[in-house]
Amino acid sequence: MHISEELDPRIKELISRGTDKVKILSVKTPPPGRVVQRNIDALATGFKYVVKPMRMTIDYPYKDIEYPDGYRGMFRVDADKCIGCSLCDIVCPADAIRLVLRDKKKVPTINWGRCIFCHFCVDICPVEAFETYKVHDVAFYRFEDMLTTLQEFTKGPEEYTPPRKVIGKKFRVVIDENRGLRYESIG
Amino acid sequence: MSGSQDITQELAQEMFRVVETGVKEEGERLIELQIGPTHPGSGHMRILAWVDGDIIVRCDPDIGFVHRTIEKLSENRAYIKTIPLVERPSLLDTTPMTIGYVNALEKLMGIEVPPRARYLRTILAEITRIASHFYGIGILAIFLGHSTGFMWAFGDREVMIELATMLTGARITYAYVIPGGVRRDMPQNFPDAVEKGLRYIEKRLKEWEKIFLNNPVVERRLRDVGILKPNIARMLGVTGPNIRASGIDYDVRMIEPYEAYDEIDFMIPVAEEGDAYARGLIRFKEIEQSINIIRQAVKKIPEGEIISPQISRLFNPLMKKIYAEQKRVKLPSLMATLKPPKGEAMARVEAGRGEALFHIISDGSTNPYRFRFVTPSFRNVILFKYLIPGHRIADLPAIYGSLDYFPPEADR
Amino acid sequence: MTISLGPLEIPTRLVYDFLHIFILPGFGAVLILIILIIWAERKIAGLVQLRYGPLHVSRRFGGILQLVADLIRYTFQEFIVPRGVDRIAYLTGPVLALIFAIIPIAFIPVSPFIEPPIYVSSNMLLVLAILSMAPIFIIITGYASDNKFAFIGSLREAFLMISYEIPFIISILSMALLFKSLDMSVVVSSQANYLPGVILNPLAALVAYIAIIRITGRFPFEISEAESELVMGPYTEYSGLMYGVAMGIAYIKLYVYSILYSIVFLGGWLPILSTNLVESYFIGSFIILIKASLLMLIAVFLRSVYPRYRVDQAIRLGWSQVLILSIISLIWSLILSYFLR
To answer: Is residue C13 in some structural domain?
Structure first.
């Protein structure tokens, strides 16, 4: 049996429903030709960037980026507000927050190695006990340091050991029409 | 339906015969190349290619290296915990996956989504689609050896990722879509930044044409390579831009519109040739169409709620205050232990690589009984077996790049 | 003539030979120029690709010492010799390819008044012959490594070597026909009398440049070491210092071919005005190196614009278009040499 080039009519009627609602933009491959012109165009486009560079990257860590408002980073818990309802434990997709029993009260602890920074816990807390920061790149020397107790969970990322020192001048990302991303320095 | 089964069986037998007769024993002329997982041109999979001189005689994809048992993991978790999980396989277009899962869940529970939330979901889905197509173009470029195309693609993708950071707060894994709506509203400077970003991408598409699409060496490498005929594509179940480059106009956004797609005016690009060049060109044209969709959605977005009233009536006074002031949706405690009624629901979406299908079977408890989802890359992987034999070794990266196959998405 | 250094009497010829082979344009210039050219390649690629390129190693100078850091790393990396390789060929292949790529420097003159260290009256032909032997050892390295990808890489190198060395030799010999001599000093002085070779026979210049881009493995002809198809081509199984040697072979060949090209087509050490021996040596070699660097920079800029060809497309290009252009350039030289008495 030879596979013909045409679509079999029995298949055609199976797919005919639904195609009347579809609006098509017919795309044609441009014909080959004008080889010399196209080579010169490609070389000129590349050369334009050698002469006028337009860098889109930033040499972290000598320069630091400040993320926009609402960026999901690390967070800390306010121990006075927490009522121990365990909703953050139930909803965490990665089992990172655990409530442990201490002095007949349930207190939250977090394992930063597992956290995926989805902020479901921040959003489900009925008393708004979490305070969020825009920092996510804290480094730990030992694996055990990532498993925090309540004591450490109440501290912000600036106070962890080792502390996250500000490494370079801070820049903010601005979307620009000509350059794509532009970095403006703040402070 | 038995009529179509005869056709598929006949065609399948013919296809198997065409491929199997070419294989000889490994010996003097036939070499078995294992383009394995630790190879710069293979991704997270192994491709076994039997090569006779320079011509590939038989090709077998060996997938499953990145299987993370997403479907089984979701059977032990509550419904809302699966939302970040279902984003993880296909890391490039994460939003359509969450939209599909949440749509299936909403069908099961009968939750209505307000119009503003639907438009916000559409805007994020199209932003993700542009980012995903740029990734596909970049991989096609680096497999051909065009390192500038690779770097430009990832640089332009970065603009879209920064826009998404402004909207949702994360760079790639947003977890923005929840049953009933979305989690946050647009910030004040968002429409302005979106317009600037889209104008930048339009400007760059012209330079892409000069250095990549019209580059004579790229044309020589991609023209008439890996031609996929329409009836074979239909029989194998290929989806996405691969099938739209072969002349079949199939796009879930038009056939079964979801979210705000039935209120927005756009076209789907379809090409006739079916070779690797057409598949690359279709991705560029789809980026232009997505720019069109985002512009219309940002202009037409209605005012209103971003979360369904069925959920917002469960807020306590503190949550209501935060919602009114910051437009940030707090999750009521019911969300952590959702118990949908018994039944099953299906939803399908058009992800960047094709059609994704979500099927949830619930038995009334907090964990699903079965969650099945079929990703577009999993349906496209069969093309490795049928498109590649007959081409040369150097065509294998070209065809692989043009199919935009992403192994973690196929393995889930 | 001798130079007296205290109690020592050193013949001038020996001093000149030492300077020519070890400092300029020999090993010293090779090392410095290769460090600069590889840095320029990565920096130019970075500029076109919207990023910085190498910047970390010596920040104040724009990362120029990056290659020195890389070479230090390769020196201290473990050099693993796999079990199934043919040991003698595996260990000596890249080394011999390097030797044959760098020997021609001893034959090339850089000054109008001083003979090169080894003077042969037909030194252009000798340089071409020695340079054609380097690819043979690359093929041997690929075959000696017990690896299917290296084998395919050396097959590709064998096919392409034959397709592109022939047009190169024909175009260089057509220039020799035009200037009626196979001696490079005579060729340069003829260009002083008439015009530079690139204006007299532009077709030969174009063919020779395309052939140089293929022979040294620059994009779009980087086919034998195609990274997404064969892991590293013939050099797949190398690590440690031999990997550094293998990477350097292509750039040393580019250096020598560029010097040859600038002597035959661009006028060599012209315009040189002084007649002092010492000055003519230094100024002459500087002028040649500047012209060679310009050619190397153009060849290296192509990495950011082009992908790579497929093997059969490159071979077909070589046999159908480049060869025919080189034969046309030969005929053009014949016609033109009649008019240039």
So the answer is: no
CB pair distance less than 8 Å for C229 and B217: no
Number of domain units in chain C = 1
Average pLDDT over every residue of A143-163: 71
Token reading at B84 = 């970040």
CB contact under 8 A, B316 and A126: yes
Which chain A residues contact residue B282 at CB under 8 A?
Answer: 27
User: Which candidate from C48, C228, C311 shows the least CB-CB separation from B142?
Assistant: C228
Question: What would the pLDDT profile of C102-153 be if each residue is shown by its tens digit?
Answer: 999 999 888 888 888 888 888 899 999 999 888 899 899 888 988 888 888 8
When comparing pLDDT for B21 and A177, which is higher?
A177
Interchain proximity C309–B217, CB inside 8 Å? yes
Whether residue C323 has pLDDT greater than 90: yes
**Strand, helix or coil at B143?**
helix
Q: Which ipTM score applies to this complex?
A: 0.88
Interface membership of A167 toward C (CB under 8 Å): no
Whether the per-residue pLDDT at B16 is higher than 60: the answer is: no
The pLDDT tens digits of the residues spanning A9-27 come to 665 655 554 456 667 777 7
Nearest CA in chain B to C52: B151
Sign of the C-alpha dihedral computed for residues B221, B222, B223 and B228 taken in this order: positive
User: Which one, of C243, C248, C249, C247, lies nearest residue C75 by Cα?
Assistant: C243
Distance from CA of C118 to the nearest CA of B (A): 41
Q: Which fold has domain B80-411?
A: Cytochrome-c3 Hydrogenase; chain B (1.10.645)
Nearest CA-CA distance, residue B9 and chain A, Å: 12
Q: Does residue B175 contact residue A120 with C-beta atoms inside 8 Å?
A: yes
Q: What are the chain A neighbours of B330 within 8 Å (beta carbons)?
A: 123-126, 128
Among the ranges A152-161, B122-131, C23-32, C214-223, which has the highest mean pLDDT value?
A: B122-131
Contact (CB, 8 A) for B140 and B202: no
pLDDT over 90 percentage in chain B: 37
Closest-CA distance, C47 to chain B, in angstroms, reads 10
pLDDT interval class at B322 (50, 70, 90)? confident
- Compute φ and ψ for B64, nearest 5 degrees: 115, 5
A14–B4 CB contact, under 8 Å: yes
Within 10 angstroms of residue B258's Cβ, the number of other Cβ atoms is: 20
Instruction: Specify if C9 maps to a domain.
Output: no
- Tokens encoding B49: 């290619």
User: A36 at the C interface (CB within 8 A)?
Assistant: no
Question: Using CB atoms and an 8 Å cut-off, which of residues 204-223 of chain C contact chain A?
Answer: none
User: Rounded to an integer, what is the distance from CA C260 to the centroid of its chain?
Assistant: 8
C70 within domain boundaries: yes
Domain ranges of chain B: 2-62, 80-411
Q: Report yes or no on C58 lying in a domain.
A: yes
Is 90 exceeded by the pLDDT of residue B136?
yes
- CATH match for A75-156 among 3.50.50.60, 3.10.20.600, 3.40.50.720, 3.30.70.3270: 3.30.70.3270
Sequence ranges of the domains in chain A? 75-156
Closest CA to B98 of B151, B177, B20: B177
Q: Which band of pLDDT confidence, cut at 50, 70 and 90, is reported for residue A164? A: low
Please tell me the distance in Å from C312's CA to the nearest CA on chain B.
9
- Candidates A1, A10, A25: best to mutate against B (most CBs of B within 10 A) is A25
Which pLDDT score is estimated for C327?
93
Q: Cα separation of B196 and A165, whole Å?
A: 34
Query: What type of residue is B364?
Result: G
Chain A interface includes B328 (CB < 8 A): yes
